Amino acid sequence: MRSERMVVQAARLAFLGVLFAAAGFAARAQAAPIAGPAGDSFPLATDVRLGGDEAQTRFVMDLSRKIDLHVFTLADPYRVIVDIPQISFRLPPKTGESGRGLIKAFRFGLVMPGGSRIVIDLAKPARVDKAFVVDPADGAPARLVVELVATDRENFLRKIAFDQRFARTQTPPSREQQTSAGDARPLIVLDPGHGGIDTGTKGPNGQIEEKDIVLDFAMRLREKVESLSKYRVLLTRSDDTFVPLAERVRFAREAGAALFISIHADSLPRREGDAQGATVYTLSETATDPAAARLAEQENRADVIAGVDLKDQPEDVAGILIDLAQRETKTFSVQFAQKLIGTIKQTTRLHKEPLKSAGFRVLRAPDVPSVLVELGYVSNKEDLQSLSSDGWRDRTAKSMAAAIDGYFATHLAGARAGSN
Questions:
Q1: What is the DSSP letter of 199?
Q2: Is residue 316's pLDDT more than 80?
Q3: Contact between residue 237 and residue 346 where contact means Cβ atoms under 8 Å apart
Q4: What integer is the mean pLDDT of 344-349?
Q5: Residues 290, 292, 295, 300: is their CA dihedral positive or negative?
Q6: What is the mean pLDDT of residues 341-346?
Q7: Which of 280, 269, 287 lies closest to 378 in space, CA to CA?
Q8: What is 298-328 written as a DSSP string?
Q9: CB-based contacts of 182: which residues, under 8 Å, 6+ apart?
Q10: Are 370 and 191 in contact (CB under 8 A)?
Q11: What DSSP designation does 418 have?
């Protein structure tokens, strides 16, 4: 047993060396969440209009003042990405859910402190003919204008290749990592799902968004875990910011996480009936059931929703070494999932099948035990009532903190015994 553990550890070290060299990872020592200026100091977006047809379509957004913009296109699905400085979107509900002409739909939101993004979903390939911002004049607001002209797939892809321009990506916020130097306490990374432009699921009235529910819960859980004084805790995001899936995993690995917990709140389409209760997922290429596969596919689309180009994500390398490193990691992930289910069932309703697995991209760290927790279903009346309750969030966060403590008590005891 001990020799096998040594082989696994050696393989893990070798894997890390190969992967870091291949991907060009750099250590991060970054101050925590950047505080932006007061909300009312940002430019305001107050209205959006679409005009034209399937040959030519114009997108116009009214702004309180002129700003800079950077526009590029992505394929599969066809999208136009407009990166702009951080602005406050004061637009009517359901803005962007429908389109016109070449524009199928569009969305907008924060992608990083100081940066916002507009993602325009195209009905078919189109090129950006013009993109500019008009100065305010004679009482009229500034206007951001994107003019689109229909094209074919070949020319659409050729334009992408010619530009060689890529979307900016957000480095996950962290705390000043130098403060943890010499701190041997296990590090737990909490990952509030979605954020910024990616709202996640929404409640029936559209007013409650998954990204807000899970961020609030993660902050409560951090407080409960830190109060035990046994662990360090970092969040992949601590504000309404979008973080690409690969960056969440990379952040946990580079920070040296001993446990990664991604937090979400599911929603079930009406045509699929009703479901309720919390579910804990571990990583598996074969989903336990169609519902798990659907959820994994839905969550894995986060980068597409935010307009991140996935083509430059590094491919997995050294498959044999990855398999060796993942063997122990998968075992620990399942052990924690079981501990979590056994503990939180005392304070919250569980799904009828509370332990599942599927191919979630955010759980793919080969050397960090990882789980994804669906707190409940915002599409279920009882679950939504719980998810919206401060009391429920506190009780459930406290129960999850107890599960984390119980897991590490067993895990660390076993590690000490194995080293003797």
A1: -
A2: no
A3: no
A4: 93
A5: negative
A6: 95
A7: 269
A8: HHTTHHHHTT--GGGSPPP--HHHHHHHHHH
A9: none
A10: no
A11: H
